[in-house]
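Appendix B.2, paired examples.
Example (i):
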Amino acid sequence: MTDSSPQGIFLSYRREDAAPYARLLQFQLSERFPDAQVFMDLDSIEAGLDFADVIAEAVDSCAVLVALIGRQWATLADEAGHRRLDDPDDFVRFEVQAALERGVRVIPVLVDGASPLRLQHLPSELHKLARLNAFELSYGRYQYDAERLIDLIQRVLAEAPGASAVHQSPSAPAGPGPTVPRAEGADLRAARLLTEAEGIAHSLTDEGKKAAALSGIAQALAATDPDHAAQLFTDAERIGQSITDVEKAGALTEVAQALAAIDPDRAERFADSLTEEYPKAPALYGVVVALADTDPDRAESIARSIPDEDLVAKALAAVAAALAATDPERAEGIADSLDFEPYEIEVLCGLAKALAATDPGRADQVFTDAESIARSITDDFFKAWTLSDVAQALATLDPERAERLARSITDEAWEAWGLGGVAAALAPTDPDRAERIVHSLTFEPAKAAALQNVAQALAATDPDRAERLAHSNTDEEMKAAALSDVAQALAAIDPDRAERLAHSITHEPAKVSALCGIAKALTATSP
């Protein structure tokens, strides 16, 4: 054993089943014990070093090893199908075994509902681990459980040789006594919420939704934990690639779009690496959408490389819409180049909305041109679709004209979609009228979408009304999406209410989105 006093804390865990807990505990332990070194992720040992020596040295410097045990801790297999725990060179096995052999205090912590370890399931070198009293750490009562665990670690450190060398942060209690959960700082709360979101994401059985959820969490983590964010993106890419049905394209598009927001080079490489035209084309489209506002030149270049003519047009329309406010001439030029009229009209509507504040006369003319093109379409479906788009875009400039235009659509479904869009556009400035329009709709799919969109539009300015409208939605998925938006909008002004609302969401992908949004807002406001 080394001569130095053992005052470190070793977090042993498997990334596949306890990484979120390990990251969160590392954050809390480092905050609570600023002078104690917290060891984790020793599987990243640099080339040329003996992993056994490195782990043994780290364990020797620690007073306690916390073994985080998830539901797959004892059963995870390697690429050959062999159980990892049976391999003497398995990092996790070696870490725990080294601590047991050296007399380091080992605290087994069961996470994510894991069952206690059984003697017959462990190699003989780890039999003692099954006899140790295990601690439970759960999402549902995380703050309480974590405080109890950290208080236990505090007592172990206090009893270890050289205890005076390690001091607690000023917020920690001076001595033993009943555990009282401490007030969370914004960073800690954000970390806890992202930990919960990751746990939910890994539990999803729908692989497409899992890939999308992990991408969203990675995007939220990118600023504070880029290494783990990169790993989550890798996991999301792998999961998306493994999908064999029609959902593959949607999942990979979500991954590419989330990745493009923080690492456009990697996002483009990822999309380009896909060998099948579908999902390659949608993935490239996702990159274009993510880049259109910040790098329109690159977005346009990528759009023109998409191996699908329809998606080329759709991607160029997204670029043009992003350019409408800063370079209307270029946006109009792209619109004129599009052969597909619905996309041309989409760009013209975006251009007119952008011009409304600075050149209302020209905006009105562009709207008139868009309506004229829409009415000239001979296909009834596309005519109704495009008139609905024009009505929705026109709502903020001329709500009376927009509502008349929507009600002139002869197709009942598209009339309802158009009116729903008008209501959403009016919501921030005339919520009463928006709500009346929504409740007048009889086509249920459009009404459900309109309730979601109006609630989203009101989330930041009238969260009470937004929440009420969201709860009135009979479509559970749309209700959840709207409640997620309301929770995220509340995060900066009332994080307690935001978190309560997020936890009330029963649709798990929407709950993940809400937790990520709240965490990002907390991180942005943290000093």
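Example (ii):
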Amino acid sequence: MTTLPLQRAAATPRLSRKVGVAGVLALWLVGFLLLRGRDTLRLAEADVTPVHQSLNQLNDTVAANRNSNPLFLYFFNEIRLVVDELARGMQALISQPVAGRPLPIIGWLGVVALAAFGAWALGNLKVALLTAGGLLFLGFQGLWQESMDTLALTMTAVLLSLVVGIPLGIWVGLSRRGERLLTPVLDFMQTMPTFVYLAPLTLVFLIGPASATIATMVYAVPPVIRLTAHGIREVPHDTLEAARSMGSTRGQLLRQVQLPMAKRTMVIGVNQTIMAALSMVTIAALIDAPGLGQTVVKSLATLDVGSSFNAGLAIVVLAIVLDRVTTAASVRAERSRRNPSRLGHLRRLWLLLGAAATAVCVYLSYTYLWAAEFPSQLDLGAPIRRSADAVSTWVQTNLGSTTGVLKDVFTNVVLNPLQTLLTDSPWWLVAAAIVALAAIVGSARASVTSAICLGLLVATGVWSDAMVTLAATLVAAVVVLLLGLVVGVWMGRSTRVDRVVRPFLDAAQTMPAFVYLVPFLALFSTSRFTAIVAAVVFAAPVAIKIIGDGISGVSATTVEAATSAGSSRWQIITKVQLPMSLRTIALATNQGLIFVLSMIVVGGLVGAGALGYDVVQGFRQDRLFGKGLAAGLAVVLLGILLDRITQAAARRADVVTHAHS
């Protein structure tokens, strides 16, 4: 008897919200037509504001007092020295000449043997063969040293992340107070696009391996903290009570019960940290981090598709190897927890023999040139580069008109009108409209947060560039959401489709952001459209998976009831599954926006301009350092703005879903 009133009560606010949104947009459009071109805060590429000049002076002051100020002399410089020594030590081990040697301590044969043995010990023989084959492929591409530089910095950042992250994760898992303190910090760290970490860290730690490693660590540490805490909290309460009743102390409980039972989840956290570190290390090439990222950045700057594709392929191979090894390690950890006797005497014997053979390979690689310097006789890099260039040339020759028309139509019909509305409207009108929309679709708190973020955006002096970035982000996010709805519903309704599509989505999520730029650069050359397409492909997998999981999670009983009532497939999707997945869809929108924003900023390297371009120019020209730093802050503010509005919308959607149920 109460179902109908509930539905009417839920439908009325939704209708009023639609009317409110339409009213705000109509008023905004009228204001745009009447006041177009006024108070736009437009700034030319080479211009700077007093705020930017103040940041430049701050940079100069820091540089002048770096070796005399006690804070730098006894704190920041010491941190930089320790991290730099650790990073250079790792490079000396596998990638860079050391101590008068023309080659690193461990040559290619030793690295391949160590990696394969580690993959076998942590996973299985199949993963060991994949690891060995992947590393050899990197060498045959002619990118052995670059790959080892990337691996060395990645492992350095991961080591530091684990040293810091695991203790913090244990604290968060055991302490509600720790959870309350760290969760907002972790949310903030994961909301910030990768570019943003670079500028402030170069101010403090200078350009080089140290700042690149610290930036990578800051970006990569949240997953291991979160998953370590999650693993500890998920230990069954009955198990803990049983251990306490046997007299276990808190330390014994942690060491003998909670950590062993959380081992698999912690290994997954290590996996996510490694993948995040690899992604960040490649982007950190912008602040002089050595490795494959340098090759990609230089190739993108010169539009050398062949070299960028070769280096991008190497990054993908390295990502797959690291992902497979840590994934296999998490599976073995779970199996060993359930069956501790699985490691039999025969496997121990084989591991001992493997360790001995690995030690021999390491010795040979230290002693003999043939085992230290990767052989150059078989060069796969040259044909890969030639093939990529040939494909790029063919595409531009035969499909150039088609891709050009697609790019021009999309840019002129979709992107330019929205960008014009955002950039040519008075800044106060845009801010008022966004605050009002935040209140309508989200909450009063979201509107207050939006007002603060927009006010700070004005203060950064890069309002117009921020609006250009926001326009591209919103357009790409809409496309991502549409893809998420179409493919996600398809996956959620069909187990067979899910089994086929999900591995491709998982593979796409292992690829660092840089890699997505390469193929679309060949297709569309440098343009805003190129960055948008790369952002869509980068962000779509996460949105598709979230929506697919939400659709599949709708009660089968509810679907069967709708079917028995005569509902068609389309009616079941639109009247049952989508309405009951509103919170999931809102969450997918949130994650899609954050991923898109991150990639759109990276797209500054391929013609997206705006904030991404400002950040990059800040690294390259001292007089634009302040503007680049302000642009980085603007990216953070946009991320917080979009995150808070979509999170508030998700909470409101959750209320609507519960009202319907």
